[in-house]
Amino acid sequence: MRFSTFFYSLKQGIKNIRRNRMFSLASIGTITACLFLFGIFYFVVANFQYMVKTAETSVGVTVFFDAGISEEQIDKIGEEIKSRAEVASVEYVSAEETWKNYKEKYLNPELAETFGDDNPLADSASYSVYLNDVSMQKSLVNFIEGLDGVRQVNHSDSVANTFRTFNALVGYVSAAIIIILLAVAIFLISTTVTMGIAIRKEEISIMKLIGATDTFIRAPFIVEGVIIGIIGAILPIIGLYFIYHKVISYITEKYINIFHAFQFLEAKVIFSNLIPISLGIGIGIGFIGSYMTVRRHLRRKESV
């Protein structure tokens, strides 16, 4: 596209927005509202997934060794486990540490002293293995159970299944809400562009008669839709940025006793993803809505 054509399309697109001021404002308002709701929903989902991911890393499997195994064999098992992609970290717990923790948790001092230097948990040394993704627990457990020197692997399938089900549910709900919001916004853009076409119906007919291409006719309306989409995306981002800061500060200060164990995502992490997503959605809605509407109109004109 030549510069002259580009600036013509830009100029006409802005004119269309001014001509259809009320419909343009309605479209901008709808996109703003949709992306604002999307942003709020994104805050909740992103933080929930972050908390679930953090919780997943605290869910692990415990690996026990055969009796009489050497330290070299234990180290080799540890290295093989660490080499797995699904493993986040591995902690070695010696038999002495296991017995010490057991005494502190379950035995009173008098009863503990009766054991003297004896360690009834002499063969209880273990690895605590934490995963990057709890859904990969089964494959990891199968791998560890096949290693030489491993006596037993303790794990919880119910916890892994709960996290996996929750993540799937969040994904489905997110997809459904996003599709509904996009459909509403595209409908409003289409209505706005349709009004612009109706106003310029005679002008478009004349342009077609003198040989203007469909691309030349379509460009101003696409520019109009994209501008509306960009404005509709920028406005909620600005509002959401301040809201996120205020809400997270309020929650962490007011309900510190409840949320002290949870960590929220930092604003820069949230908005490093939300800004390009929102702009992409806004521009995409504007482009798709206007392109489809003009294309449908031009086809109708050709068939007449």
Describe the structure in your own words.
This is Cell division protein FtsX. Part of the ABC transporter FtsEX involved in asymmetric cellular division facilitating the initiation of sporulation. Keywords: Cell cycle, Cell division, Cell membrane, Membrane, Transmembrane, Transmembrane helix. With 304 residues, the protein is an alpha+beta fold. The chain has 2 domains: 3-55 and 162-303, no CATH class; 60-155, Alpha-Beta Plaits. Helix content is 74%, strand content 8%. The protein contains 11 helices and 4 strands, in the order ααβαβααβαβααααα. The protein has helices at 3-19, 21-56, 71-82, 95-106, 109-113, 137-145, 157-199, 201-209, 214-254, 256-259, 267-303; strands at 60-65, 87-93, 126-131, 150-154. It has a 4-stranded antiparallel sheet. Helix 7 crosses helix 9 (214-254) and helix 7 (157-199) crosses helix 11.
